[in-house]
Amino acid sequence: MNFCPICATPLETRLMENVPRLACSDASCAYVHWDNPVPVVAALVQYRGGVLLARNVAWPEGRFSVITGFLEKGEDPEQAVLREVEEELGLRGRLKGFIGYYPFYPQNQLILAFDVEAEGDVALNHELAEYRVVAIDKLRPWDFGTGLAVRDWLAGRQA
């Protein structure tokens, strides 16, 4: 973003409370781009005795993750995660619980992860290339993003 969305004046970087922020260069305009994190919901989908992981069409072969999507304006996170499961997989989900929240700094996101049990027949939407159901004893977390939710979910099962 190069110009103020309020008055179209060029933006400049200003140090505000020791943090560099984009702000309007016009002294009479108070616009500051705070760059707050974007909320994302994630569903660890329990499906047919395992955990369903999917590969986004933009990802390389072999990279799978839990189901994620953006929280819409005015939407409850619990409703959003069930909506994402239905939209992306064509499955009916039932919320089993909240796993935790996880900052994902590379994309300025805050992930809200939920445990969801799903049933039905998978019908992938256009965002997903493929899926696999991984046996729970074979499921291994990865060390960033939603992988931390997988780690915590697995640890909670052993407690």
UniProtKB/TrEMBL annotation:
Describe the location of the Nudix hydrolase domain by residue ranges: 35-156
Q: Which organism is it from?
A: Noviherbaspirillum suwonense
Q: Tell me its cofactors.
A: Mg(2+); Zn(2+)
Residues in a coiled coil are: none
User: What reaction does this catalyse?
Assistant: a 5'-end NAD(+)-phospho-ribonucleoside in mRNA + H2O = a 5'-end phospho-adenosine-phospho-ribonucleoside in mRNA + beta-nicotinamide D-ribonucleotide + 2 H(+)
**Matches recorded under Pfam families:** NUDIX
Q: Which family does it belong to?
A: Belongs to the Nudix hydrolase family. NudC subfamily.
Q: Which named protein is this?
A: Nudix N-terminal
Q: Which domain of life is it from?
A: Bacteria
Q: Which InterPro entries match?
A: NAD-cap_RNA_hydrolase_NudC, NUDIX_hydrolase-like_dom_sf, NUDIX_hydrolase_CS, NUDIX_hydrolase_dom
- Keyword Transcription on this protein? no
Alphabetically sorted, this entry's keywords are: Hydrolase, Magnesium, Metal-binding
